[in-house]
Amino acid sequence: MVNGQKTWCSNAHLADHVLLIARTGSGGTKHEGLTQFVVPTGTPGLQIQGIDTMGGREVNDLYFTDCFLHDDRGRHRGPGLEAADGRAEPGADDPRR
């Protein structure tokens, strides 16, 4: 279950899926215990709201309200930050694996 907000997510209103890095573990350093999730944009509890900018509404706020994410949506459980910055095993986030 996810509750929170992600800000400045480019073109989320056009996407089929968004990436979310959420804290799923406690302890360790602030960079440990993070998991990267692939979230379908139609998931109940996810609201996408455009942010007015000089360039239009290309960026968005994502609001997660009691948004249930299935375990199979979690990728790189634990080292989510390494996945986000490309340090994870190449192809590890490929859903066909």
UniProtKB/TrEMBL annotation:
Q: Where is the composition biased (Basic and acidic residues)?
A: 84-97
What InterPro entries is this protein classified in? Acyl-CoA_Oxase/DH_mid-dom, Acyl-CoA_Oxase/DH_mid-dom_sf, AcylCoA_DH/oxidase_NM_dom_sf, Mycobact_Acyl-CoA_DH
Instruction: Give yes or no: UniProt keyword Cell membrane.
Output: no
Q: Which domain of life is it from?
A: Bacteria
Q: Which keywords describe this protein according to UniProt? A: Oxidoreductase
Please list the residue ranges annotated as the Acyl-CoA oxidase/dehydrogenase middle domain: 1-67
Chain intervals for the UniProt region annotation (Disordered): 75-97
Q: Which Pfam families match?
A: Acyl-CoA_dh_M (PF02770)
PANTHER family cross-referenced by the UniProt entry = ACYL-COA DEHYDROGENASE (PTHR43292), ACYL-COA DEHYDROGENASE FADE34 (PTHR43292:SF4)
Q: What is the name of the protein in this document?
A: Acyl-CoA oxidase/dehydrogenase middle domain-containing protein
